[in-house]
Amino acid sequence: QSIPANLDIDALIVGAGFGGVYNLVQLRKLGLNAKILEAGSDFGGIWYWNCYPGARVDSELPIYQLTMPELYRNWKYKEKYPGWKELREYFHFVDETLDLRKDVYFNSHVKEAVWDSEAGKWTVVTADGKQARTRFLLLCTGIGSSYYVPEIKGLSSFKGVCHHTSRWPHEGVDLRGKRVGVIGTGATGVQVIQEAAPVAGHLTVFQRTPNLALPMKQHPVSPDLQQQMVDDLYPVFFKKRHQTFGGFMYDLVSDKTTFGVSPEERRHHYESIWAEGGFRFWIGNYSDLFTDKAANEEAYAFWRDKVRERIKDSWMKEKLAPMVPPHPFGMKRPSLEQRYYEVFNQSNVTLVDVSETPIEEVTPKGVKTKDGKEYELDVLVLATGFDMVTGGITAIDVKGTDGKPIGEKWKEDGVHTYLGMTVATYPNMFFVYGPQGPTAFCNGPSCLELQGEWIINCIKHMLKHGYATIETDKAAENAWRQIVIDENNKTLLPLAKSWYMGANIPGKRIEPLNYPGGVPAYRKHITDVVEKGYEGFVFKKSGDEITN
Ligand code: NA7
Questions:
Q1: What distance in angstroms lies between residue 385's CA and the mean position of ligand 1's atoms?
Q2: Which GO molecular function annotation, any one, does this entry have (predicted)?
Q3: Cα-to-centroid distance, 500 and ligand 1 (Å)
Q4: Rounded distance, CA 328 to CA 182, Å?
Q5: Residue 185 C-alpha from the chain's centroid
Q6: What is the pLDDT of residues 389-400, one digit of tens each?
């Protein structure tokens, strides 16, 4: 269905991923007329776009799902870390169970949203010129909806097949027997490389920074086991998501420090969280890994030795797991891997260190590096990432009470939000899983349900009291930015060139994009604000100013 002329609704959501779906369901429960506008032609958000070989979530089940009982009681995943196909099946199940599709306009790429102060409404415009009016605007655009292609000379001259991973053709690309090149070794690069290596004629990996990847420990999960856990264990796990640093089922160890325990105890802990896999070696480790350089280096040394054991060639060992850490461990996002390091023992795999010999240009035949070498390719994969965290919002010309696009403002003054959910001068606008929330360190559904619930309660509060608009106070917003900066400065995060700090995009301001204090502390902040009568917000009733 396409957007009808004169669409005028209570709430418009941008994005049909986890965040959009959650909020649509809750807004319906409030009796509001809510619709989703989605750029893709199906549900899934990032899982609609990410269909490159090996695309898979790094959060484990059962927490990587929505916690509505009618969903989790009836859905069974097949693998501990589901792949993109299964995740798309999940979204179809969610759609069928909750009858969502009738409230979604697909192929509707939102380009602009302008606040009309007189009407107290947003006018939302799509790329193909369709318009909708709405009282509330919820941006559920996710952290990775604005993909990034570096400016590499000659890129468009390449005669082979070239795709950014986020725009991988849904029908796939046959890599069998091909000469495949992958630029980038982030979470995406690691996944593509693992899939391409066994089938490619030759695989060339262009690495700038080694990924300090952790063992995923993937395995199939039986429907029976899930059924057994549904009644008793799932509710416990779901509760845990708001009690642990990363919204996972395990937590940072904060009652002990790395060097406050004996070397034997430390080793035992490292070994056990390593064996269990996932992000445990990162956000299930001693919490001073985030704050203490020596503690961080101790964890790094363990990681390095474990990884080196798996690599045969000594040059490769040093490139993939250097003796000296390339950055503090975990301060740039570690990925999860299954057989990543073994790939580099294969004779059909070449690793090119582009920090030493940068890519000079892409030629019609392949990739040329500064040392004059040309790597001939049939397929070039750009696993070069996204304008993370902010890019989904700034890609839209959102204009509030002062008419300035949000991207311009953030570029000039730095990212400003209040509680990672609202922005001053943008009334009746909310977002989930975006800047200055716990986003980057948090399991997606954990974080966006927490924020979604807060937003829905806020709208409920407005409906109850007859408030027309909510506006964020500038001073409250400045204070929140300072909290984010201060929390970040307590950690080693500023020492890594990562997307957490906006450092992956040339010219992007270097600043913390996420609240790094963990989910429980964040939750306390946002609930305290409510308990203090929505401190930091101004509600207005048809023109009259009423504070709180
Ligand atoms: P990432 O993690 O931002 O990774 C992008 C990769 O691309 C990274 O290895 C970059 O190297 C590399 N890159 C970027 N530009 C260049 C140029 N010009 N030359 C060579 N290499 C380059 O994106 P992903 O898609 O892997 O993952 C994003 C998030 O999605 C992930 O963290 C999860 O949350 C899910 P660098 O490290 O900057 O040296």
A1: 5
A2: N,N-dimethylaniline monooxygenase activity
A3: 12
A4: 25
A5: 16
A6: 999 999 999 999
Q: Which residue has the tokens 């080196």?
A: 308
Residue count of the chain: 548
6 Rama class: left (phi>0) / alpha (psi -120 to 50) / beta:
left
Per-residue confidence at 24, pLDDT binned at 50, 70, 90?
A: very high
Instruction: Name the one residue in this structure whose structure tokens are 């996002």.
Output: 333
Q: Is 186 in the pocket of ligand 1 (CB under 6 A)?
A: yes
Query: What ipTM is given for this predicted complex?
Result: 0.99
pLDDT digits (tens, 9 = 90+) for 294-313: 999 999 999 999 999 999 99
The angle at the Cα of 366, spanning 185 to 384, to the nearest 5 degrees, equals 25
Are 333 and 513 in contact by the 8 Å Cβ rule? The answer is no
- pTM of this prediction? 0.97
Over residues 524-531, mean pLDDT: 98
With the most atoms of ligand 1 within 8 angstroms of its CB, the residue from 384, 433, 498, 513 to mutate is 384
Closest CA to 386 of 221, 166, 542: 166
- pLDDT tens profile 6-18: 999 999 999 999 9
First-residue to last-residue Cα distance in the chain: 39
Mention every residue, 6+ apart, whose C-beta is less than 8 A from residue 304.
Answer: 321, 322, 323, 325
Three-state secondary structure readout of 156-225? HHCCCEEEEHHHCCCCCCCCCCCEEEEECCCHHHHHHHHHHHHHCCEEEEEECCCCCCEECCCCECCHHH
